[in-house]
Amino acid sequence: MARILVTGGTGYIGSHTTVELMQQGYDVVIIDNLSNSTSAVLDGIAAIVGTRPAFEQVDCNDPQAVADVFTKYTDIQGVIHFAASKAVNESVEQPLKYYRNNLMSLITVLEQMKAHNVHNIVFSSSCTVYGQPAEEHLPVDETAPIQVALSPYGNTKQINEEIIRDEAHANTQLHATILRYFNPIGAHPSAMIGELPNGVPQNLLPFVTQTAIGLRKELKVFGDDYNTPDGSCIRDYIYVVDLAKAHVKAVERMLNRQATEQVEVFNLGTGRGLSVLEILKTFMQVTGVNVPYQIVGRREGDIEQVWAKPDKANNVLGWKADTPIEDVLLSAWRWEQKIRS
Ligand code: WQD
Fold this sequence. Notes:
Rossmann fold; binds UDP-4-deoxy-4-formamido-beta-L-arabinopyranose; globular; 11 helices; two-stranded parallel ribbon; seven-stranded parallel sheet
């Protein structure tokens, strides 16, 4: 069976994707510099799958180290590139770190792929490239206009997509699938892997679960004066396991040479928008746990509302994110209880 190189594979989405790849019979080698994850994640993957994925502690900004991986694992037939810095507000404070890491890691991976005759890459992108879609573009499909990025993080995703397109134009052997994630949440049903935010969580759900378990005093809801039904922001929250499965579909499509274009783009969302307050109230309902919260002012850089039109991924990838939100929120809660036990 083919081997897939998963960069950033001990991270949140990378680890869940590795599980799904291995359970579909793919061999996996993970490279990760462990700057934002720990090798204990490999034990979690092994506990689910039954075998441990190959792992090399490598920084994707180190061309020789990446080259050595391709030399060692000569059966690599595709790459899924997750490795990147991903904290939106940190990117505002440290733009140079983000541009160096997120751009150079992709460039290095693409260079080493070419040098080692590997021509299939799945790239982890984000709906943040759409900014705040205009009303006529909601729900947002892949033809919605790319808007000026609101953060260096978002800009690195846009530039990465352009790098991939330009390289594909120059190198006709390259096939790329760009996956634009909406808001990944939840944890594997086994509670063996999940989200491990560093420090104070920036994202909504880990902050909710840490408040529910008593680690945080209260959740701050950043604004209830938006032009939405309950005034809080709307997002498309997608179960991380459903998201992981989309990556397997994307790999299969490329390895089976079913891709109709050199570069294909898919929005990965549920197609359903939920507000912050809806998420919060549903979480409290399904867990029976009260989550103290306070409505505060808006967070700089937040967009008001975005959710996906996932028809292309549904019809072309043959993939659908259909896990009920109640089960997703419960999976996050079980994971929080597990890591605090
Ligand atoms: C969701 C909603 C907040 C925390 C970002 C990136 C995206 C991806 C996911 C990396 C917003 C509100 C949040 C809190 C709150 N990043 N919120 N209190 O900003 O939609 O997306 O993270 O992969 O690319 O853009 O996600 O979870 O931070 O916020 O009220 O303590 O929850 O205001 O409306 P976001 P988020």
